[in-house]
Amino acid sequence: MKDFGFIIPQNCQFGMGALKKLPDFLKAAGSDNVMLISDRGLEAIGVVDKVREIIKGANLKYSEYLDVLPNPTTTIVDECAAQYKAAGCTAIIALGGGSPMDVAKAVGVVAKFGGTIGDYEGVGKVPGPIDTLIAVPTTAGTGSEVTVAAVITDEARNYKLSVLGPEISPTYAVLDPELIMTAPASVAAACGVDALIHAMESYINTDANPFAMAMGEKAMELIGGNIRKFVARRNDPDAACAMMLGSTFAGIAFANNRLGDIHAMSHPVSAFFHVAHGVANAVLMPTIFEFNALAADERYANIYQYITGKEAGPDFVPQMLCDALRQLNNDLGIPACLADVGVTEDKIPQMAVDAMKSGNVMVNPRITTVKDVEALYHKAMYK
Questions:
Q1: Of 150, 180, 210, which closes a domain?
Q2: Predicted local distance difference test score (pLDDT) of residue 40
Q3: Cα dist from 247 to 101, 105, 116, 282, 357, whole Å
Q4: How many domains does the chain have?
């Protein structure tokens, strides 16, 4: 067994109504001036109001930035960081899915250390810890509340840049299942499959270690056994609790190794065609699992059991897992191919080049070349 290390820097608090603990966390951090970073969709359905009421009830100074968009850009980070500094804030609450959390992490960097977020692209470029960040997920999907990465779109390059390091990790993760129980079915489906992919890719990649694999297995058990029930009935409290915990456990898993070709290839899809991250991952998932089947071992059978609830048995072959993943997408209403989400073949060569820049390719179970990536994009284009 090779050497490995693991870290969980967050104080994670799980439970129905855990959101009410926000003032306690801010008090512990010594902050009385907080910025809320979220989006207009969450404002429209009343989730932002819940945080506003809690913060105002605690008599804390308060500013908010609610113009975060899916696949957030460097411009959004610059705007939000300027507002954060102007308001004299000393802590951040990130409310939402991966986009508000990515923006919050990036704002923490730019507000404290200056420049633009592109100056910190890569691993280990952030010189020190950012201000206290409290991450409050409203989807069971990204796991960003426990990860050390922020992904921001550089519009000038049509490229998703990544900033990685423990310095940008949230200080607190507030896991309140009540917040995911009003998600639209389409959001619950795409985010849920994204979380499942986090668990699966971290479980089978070449950097997998016992800690990450253990977290990934528990995540697959929770998500695999509940994702259909949750999409069908988001107000099912048991399913919501399982999905929330499963998403966080999957985030912990890949924060302690990496992912694989699915995530490497989904980022260019989102950057060029503005496809939601979870949808891009889900569409690519069956095709890339077929590609990786050449390197499959008993872990394919284990995943099959987690997502189907069936014994793999002596007749199991890797294609059975690939078929099960395709069926899962179909059951959840995920688009069947890249063409269905607006991707066009003319961008495939550049998308392949950009995908190869991801460190996730290096740990994919099957060695992958740029020609392989092009072929995979073409294969995933149509039904």
A1: 180
A2: 95
A3: 14, 19, 30, 15, 26
A4: 2
